[in-house]
Amino acid sequence: MPLDLGATVLTGIHVTAYERLRAHLGLPDRHEIQILDVLQQLAVVDEDMRERLKVDVREVAPRSSATYQIEIRDGGDYTYFYDEWGIGWRKPKSGGLYYDMFDNPLRDAQTFADIDAHHWPDPVDQARLTGLGERARQAAVVEEQGVALGGLCAGILEMAAWLRGFENYYLDLAANQKLLGYLMDKVLELKLAYWEKALAEVGDLADIVEEADDFAGQSGMLISPATYRTLVKPRHKKLFDVLHARSPAKIFFHSCGAIRPAIPDLIDIGLDILNPVQVSAAGMDSAGLKRDFGRELTFWGGGVDTQRVLGSGTPQQVREDVKRRIEDLAPGGGFVFAAVHNIQPNVPPENITAMWESLQEYGTYPIGTSACV
User: Fold this and answer.
1) Where are the alpha helices (DSSP H) in 36-176?
2) What angle do CA 258, 261, 262 make, to 5 degrees?
3) What is the C-alpha separation between 118 and 112, in angstroms, rounded?
4) Which domains does the chain have, with CATH numbers?
5) What is the pLDDT of residues 255-275, one digit of tens each?
């Protein structure tokens, strides 16, 4: 059964947990762990760790344009920076684990012209694309790894929320969908420009292309299914149609939380792979998801409940949860093992090794029976 750890910024490991895991496994001390994703403080999974855990997938992706350099600044109790979209992020110096959003560049936008006037990043900056093809060929041909081709940014709807700020975003959803739609179309335009160039660089070497949009919470969707279908789904469809037309790669789509009401809509517009499979959210029981959607979808994630088990459970509870998820999601194929979202800093290394050992024990085909074709 394939294993992913660190092949996307949605299936990674926090630098704190990673440092402890390296020490626990007796791997050499890395005095300066490389950071894969600044916001989430995810570690780059080193080659010795990849070999030790038999990781099967490698990401090929720019984190941002190489011509835009993040500058970490001192803000008193915080360190902070602005990304290439103009969004401000900060992390407490004392006890801070992640960078949280604090400034939204389009919070005062009232017209289409205000949106047009924003300083937008260049999605096809050659510095962003340099080396993508070579890295994909190295991973696919030389290393015989699965290739995950990363995208430009967060989701269409998500970026609109980040650029506007959540208060304005929700007001827009209720009372100004024309402005919000225009902003979403701008993000979509940049995404499509990026994918055209990135896919041309990589060709047919990519196994998956990564996209995302978070619009659900713990107990339900954050927007109504009706709003999703009228406002967001047509834009997702346009994006998915272009990806399928330009590449044989499967579409990997990340959406956290209780996303079940929208799963049939996502399948309808061409979704291939769902991540993170948040089994602790309402309606996201792993057995039910496999039963109802296993013919159409691959599940990438859901291998262990990160929220309720991996961080706070015992190693034995981790083993039991991994066994359950494999039994639920793996029969008939269509399952790539990863934790539910990134491994967080509170996760003990003993629980990570229990997860991995259980995968080795139970993650060998054939596994039970399934309605999957």
Assistant:
1) 47-53, 112-116, 126-129, 132-137, 156-164, 166-175
2) 95
3) 10
4) 15-29+39-65+106-362 (3.20.20.210)
5) 999 999 999 999 999 999 999
